[in-house]
Amino acid sequence: MRWRYLIVWISIPALISFVFVLLLVKETPRFAISRDFAWALDILKAMFRINHKKELEVTEQEKDDLKQWVEYQKEKKVDGKISKLFKGKNLRNTICLGIIWFGTNFLYYGSTYMVPIVEGKSSNKLEYSFLYVSILSELPGCLLTYFIIENKELGRQKILLFFLVLCSLGCFGAYFLSDIVLVFLFVIKFSAVSVFNLISTFTPELYNTNVRGTGTGLASSIARVSGIIMPWVIIKSMNVSQFFPFMTSGLFGVAAAIACFCIKKDPTGKPLDIYDSENTDGEYEEDKGEEETQRLVNE
pTM of this prediction? Predict the structure, then answer.
């Protein structure tokens, strides 16, 4: 019965988050404006109020421009077909992001899965040390990414690449220097959670608005596939040696780092509508209505 109690306890944060999402999180203006113009305008005003501590004033001309854009979008029938992810510049981004999400998921959950493996070589005195390090290493990773994720001088791509390389080095270190595996386990978990925080923001920014959700969903689905096959790969790697799973994970990290390096654009600090117009490769028209929406929020 004890494991059932544990499941209940770890479900409580998700339940609390669900309630907060229902009560506090608003719909996106782009979706709302296609359903109810007044609703979308209320959301924009709320966003402006939070960001600038004052009320947003929208002129009648701006309202007319937005209404015309809504009608234009309906006539154009913009959709988010998955096939668009494999055309033009989206193709490179889709392939690279798929590899990054696959490798990141493998590194993060693989390092957790390997905790009992490294515990098996530890003394009774250190029986729970690996678990504590695995858990506590995530907090500094979350805090660090919070402070550096908007750094325009570095950019999200370079920061993401740094943590992927660091995570891979941690895996190789755990394999070659297994006597101090506890140190490298901290590095792996610290880096992996940082990568997860960054890639979740970086991914949707690389796509046009009409395929942004589709692209992010595909990348997340690829990560789920990684989680499915990860235990089998780890178990097979253990047939080589007890710490060989760290070598395997490190190779996945290297592949993810190479994929990150191959992405050509870093949208950090750019309004998404402007980045979209650069990223279209002639496939999509520049979204004037979305530029107007972005301008209202940023003013």
Answer: 0.76
